[in-house]
Specification:
The structure holds two protein chains of two kinds.
Chain A lengths: L2 E7 L5 E6 L10 H22 L8 E5 L4 E6 L5 E6 L7 H17 L13 H12 L8 H4 L1
Antiparallel strand pairs in A: 1-2, 1-5, 3-4, 4-5
Helix pairs in contact in A: 2-3
Chain B lengths: L2 E7 L5 E6 L7 E5 L6 E5 L2 E6 L10 E5 L2 E4 L2 E2 L5 H6 L6 E6 L5 H20 L11 E4 L3 E6 L5 E6 L7 H16 L13 H16 L8
Antiparallel strand pairs in B: 1-2, 1-12, 3-9, 4-5, 6-7, 6-9, 7-8, 10-11, 11-12
Helix pairs in contact in B: 3-4
Classes of the chains: A alpha+beta, B alpha+beta.
Keywords (chain B): Endoplasmic reticulum, ER-Golgi transport, Golgi apparatus, Transport
Protein name (chain B): Trafficking protein particle complex subunit
Family (chain B): Belongs to the TRAPP small subunits family. TRAPPC4 subfamily.
Chain lengths: ~150, ~220
């Protein structure tokens, strides 16, 4: 059980925030390229799902898993996207991502007159609070010894 | 236990087999009086609801029928334009049938190659060493299971989200593909699968899977 990294995108595809905790492999490209690829992946998955789905849906894309990691996705009605990569034995993270938005982002960025909403987040308070929240999650207890 | 559809994609990303097994009914028919409360527009040669979600009719649904006549593209079967019929006050009250559009073969081929690339990017963006691509994709309407064989062929199953794991079914479909497509002397590799025995056995397998309670609900 572990949490790898978190991406926050605004509705235009700008990466507002990125942080990694236990990431064991870099993608081998510059960070900017990686953000673009990640946003493109999410964008395409959403379009793919809306077309292939045999019926109507409400929330749409929730998560996907490979044999190594699981990617959790949460989008607010305003188009803000939260993407969290975790280990495979981590359950649904929807509430966690929802809290990142309503409890941390809204409180510390939206209500902070010094933060502009469509620029990368630089607020130190936001970073500290978010880091503390993620590290405090039961899913965070990294078992590095067993896997690596 | 519902399996919606099965896709097989070859190692180059081409769709070589597709089957729709269960089709959930998503059509809504409603009788309207003049003027129509919905805004319709033409999108991709289809008449689509653009505004005015109501009574189970959602934005994005297409017009499938008018007064019991089927709609083909943007025209009725007798050649009249759908938008013109709907705009004409003399045709009211009018019964319009809405629903999700059925995918055309071309769209399916496009979606298959799209998934092929999503699979590759999923593995490239992995935070862990040696990750595979997307094996399970969850939404609130369906789950997509994907199994990539050693030779690079992808088997994809779309199933009900309340269902337990489909790993067993994917293995079974791989077995059928090996037995009835690859061992068929008239089948050439990477080409569309047109083998009667494969069709029959796949159908039987899907029906058997739906009957068994082996796959426990919820996972």
């Amino acid at each position: 059980m572990t949490i790898y990294n978190l991406y926050v995108f605004d509705r235009f595809g700008t990466c507002l925030f990125y942080q990694e905790w236990n990431r064991y492999k870099q993608s081998g490209m510059s960070k900017d390229e990686e953000y673009k690829l990640m946003y493109g992946l999410i964008f395409s998955i959403k379009s793919f799902i809306s077309r292939i789905s045999p019926m109507d849906f409400k929330d749409g894309f929730l998560n996907y898993s490979t044999n190594c990691y699981r990617l959790h996705f949460f989008e607010t009605p305003s188009g803000l996207k939260f993407i969290l990569n975790t280990g495979l034995n981590v359950g649904p993270m929807r509430e966690v991502l929802q809290h990142l938005y309503s409890g941390i982002y809204v409180d510390l960025i939206v209500r902070n007159p010094l933060c502009s909403l469509n620029k990368p987040i630089e607020s130190l308070l936001f970073k500290t609070k978010l880091d503390a929240y993620i590290r405090g999650l039961p899913a965070f207890t990294a078992d590095e010894g067993t896997q690596h | 236990m519902t399996v919606y559809s099965v896709y097989i994609i070859n190692r180059a990303g081409g769709l070589i087999y597709q089957l729709d097994h269960a089709n959930p009914k998503t059509e809504v028919e409603k009788t309207f009086s003049y003027p129509l409360e919905l805004t319709l527009k033409i999108m991709d040669e289809r008449v689509v609801v653009a505004f005015g979600q109501r009574d189970g009719i959602h934005v994005g649904h297409t017009v499938l029928g008018v007064n019991g006549d089927n709609v083909k593209g943007r025209q009725l079967e007798d050649g009249r334009e759908v938008l013109e019929v709907i705009a004409n006050q003399e045709n009211y009250p009018i019964a319009i049938r809405f629903g999700r559009p059925k995918l055309s073969t071309n769209e399916r081929i496009m979606l298959a190659s799209m998934f092929h690339s999503l699979y590759a990017i999923g593995s490239q963006l992995s935070p862990e060493q040696r990750s595979s691509g997307i094996q399970l994709l969850e939404t609130d309407a369906f789950k997509l299971y994907c199994h990539q064989t050693l030779s690079g062929v992808k088997l994809i199953v779309l199933a009900d989200p309340r269902q337990g794991t489909m790993e067993g079914l994917l293995k079974k479909i791989y077995e059928l593909y090996a037995d009835y497509a690859l061992k068929n002397p008239f089948y050439s590799i990477d080409m569309p699968v047109r083998c009667e025995l494969f069709d029959l056995n796949l159908q039987a397998t899907l029906e058997a899977t739906e009957r068994t309670t082996f796959y426990a609900p919820g996972s």
